[in-house]
């Protein structure tokens, strides 16, 4: 009788891929997890309980067929596992690396709820597609038939690229416009290499180019080309710009040198890793080497900043967050990794101002306590009077989140309506904005969110755009 290939979670313990030692990780920007060997990937995939109601799949924004590709991996059918994973996710190897699985699929795994430890879904997902690349299974899109319609996509981040891929599968001509010199958006310039090595992103860009996607880089819409011109060139347009305006922080001394935005800090570090000349990094302004670094914030961007500062050789790295560990929005896995690498988390603290003459030399820190729950359901921080202190700092990084740019003004398009938060108002089923034929996806609609949600939006919008183009063709044929 053949051995049951699945449901081995009782006799087989959960195991992540080996993690490099913290002292080694601090010295470079390489990814911290090693690759699963084939036998280990099969073993860990075999722990899946194949439950009737797969909460992992339900809580994945892309509704990936996780139990099915786990079973295929466990039984050695890896190419089928890759094809099933790729069918619902444009970039599975990227999601396997950077998704907060502890808050999504793995956090809702049935065997995790029963106390056996979740299936290591993210690590297996990464293994499947990395192997597919090694084996040459990942090939550029070759549409069965080329179509005459064209779509312009503004923004080369995950939402725009996911839509581009899906549109090319249907044979639509696609041009992607982006303000940066490399495509990828925050996957290229925001997320550090120790979470997402840049060749992983660049090979996807190269694949899209080989599929026929045209990239127009170093192109700032509203300056180098007008939004109206893009609308005139294409049959439909997708806005996928993301959100890049950093939330600011006031208070005494907030204008001192040495107080920097997280996006500027991370972009400089990533550009340096590409070998680019970055003046603000080269002159030391955005280099943490030898400095006492204080990061303000509690999300994943703050985690990226503290762990980057460690690798740049900061003398000390502290993170101030106004709530406690249990109430922070960032991934708990990232917190653990940061603590292992030497980051000091100072919970229940908030900045009240900064000290220094021309250059910052300290943060005025207020101690907080948690009161009643706020509108988000988390307990609201309250100030403890008279408990302020000065935290010495040579470099302060503000990681307080991002807000949308004022696109209607920047693009001279007041008819592009936005919400009171500045995000584009659109139909959440079709993703079409107030302008006919203009769609929007990702953070510019949702506000700052996850890469996986942008991928979902991009895929959905591409399908809606295909319907729109078909309807337009039908009208034109009458």
UniProtKB/TrEMBL annotation:
Keyword annotations: 4Fe-4S, Iron, Iron-sulfur, Metal-binding, Oxidoreductase
Pfam families attached to this UniProt entry: Fer4_20, Pyr_redox_2
Domain Dihydroprymidine dehydrogenase span(s) in chain numbering: 25-136
Keyword DNA repair among UniProt keywords: no
The protein, known as: Dihydropyrimidine dehydrogenase
Domain FAD/NAD(P)-binding: 151-458
Gene Ontology molecular function: any one: 4 iron, 4 sulfur cluster binding
């Amino acid at each position: 009788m053949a051995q049951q290939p699945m449901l081995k979670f009782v006799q087989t313990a959960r195991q992540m891929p080996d993690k490099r030692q913290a002292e080694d990780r601090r010295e470079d920007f390489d990814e911290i997890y090693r690759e699963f060997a084939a036998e280990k990937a099969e073993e860990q995939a075999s722990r899946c309980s194949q439950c009737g109601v797969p909460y992992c799949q339900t809580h994945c924004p892309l509704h990936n067929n996780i139990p099915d590709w786990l079973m295929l991996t466990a039984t050695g059918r890896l190419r089928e596992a890759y094809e099933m994973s790729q069918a619902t996710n444009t970039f599975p190897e990227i999601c396997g690396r950077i998704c907060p699985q502890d808050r999504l699929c793995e956090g809702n795994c049935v065997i995790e709820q029963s106390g056996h430890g979740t299936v290591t879904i993210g690590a297996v997902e990464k293994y499947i597609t990395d192997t597919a690349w090694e084996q040459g299974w990942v090939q550029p899109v070759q549409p069965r038939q080329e179509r005459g319609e064209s779509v312009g996509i503004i923004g080369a981040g995950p939402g725009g690229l996911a839509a581009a891929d899906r549109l090319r599968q249907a044979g639509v001509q696609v041009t992607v416009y982006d303000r940066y010199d490399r495509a990828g958006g925050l996957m290229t310039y925001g997320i550090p290499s120790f979470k997402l090595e840049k060749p992983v992103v660049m090979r996807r860009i190269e694949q899209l180019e080989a599929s026929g996607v045209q990239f127009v880089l170093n192109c700032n819409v509203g300056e180098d080309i007008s939004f109206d011109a893009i609308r005139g060139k294409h049959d439909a347009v997708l806005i996928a710009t993301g959100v890049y305006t950093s939330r600011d922080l006031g208070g005494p001394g907030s204008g001192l040198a040495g107080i920097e935005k997280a996006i500027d800090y991370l972009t400089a570090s990533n550009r340096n890793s590409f070998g680019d000349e970055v003046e603000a990094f080269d002159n030391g302004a955005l280099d943490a080497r030898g400095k006492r670094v204080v990061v303000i914030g509690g999300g994943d961007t703050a985690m990226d900043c503290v762990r980057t500062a460690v690798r740049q050789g900061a003398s000390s790295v502290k993170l101030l967050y106004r709530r406690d560990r249990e109430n922070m929005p960032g991934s708990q896995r990232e917190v653990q990794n940061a603590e292992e690498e030497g980051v000091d988390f100072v919970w229940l603290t908030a900045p009240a101002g900064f000290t220094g003459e021309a250059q910052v030399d300290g943060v005025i820190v207020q101690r907080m306590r948690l009161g009643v729950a706020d509108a988000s359901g988390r307990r609201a921080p309250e100030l403890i009077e008279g408990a302020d202190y000065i935290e010495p700092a040579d470099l302060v990084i503000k990681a307080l989140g991002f807000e949308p740019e004022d696109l209607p003004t920047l693009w001279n398009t007041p008819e592009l309506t936005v919400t009171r938060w500045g995000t584009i108002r659109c139909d959440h089923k079709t993703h079409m904005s107030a302008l006919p034929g203009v769609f929007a996806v990702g953070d510019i609609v949702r506000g700052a969110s996850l890469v996986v949600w942008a991928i979902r939006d991009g895929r959905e919008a591409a399908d809606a755009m295909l319907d729109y183009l078909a309807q337009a063709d039908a009208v034109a044929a009458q």
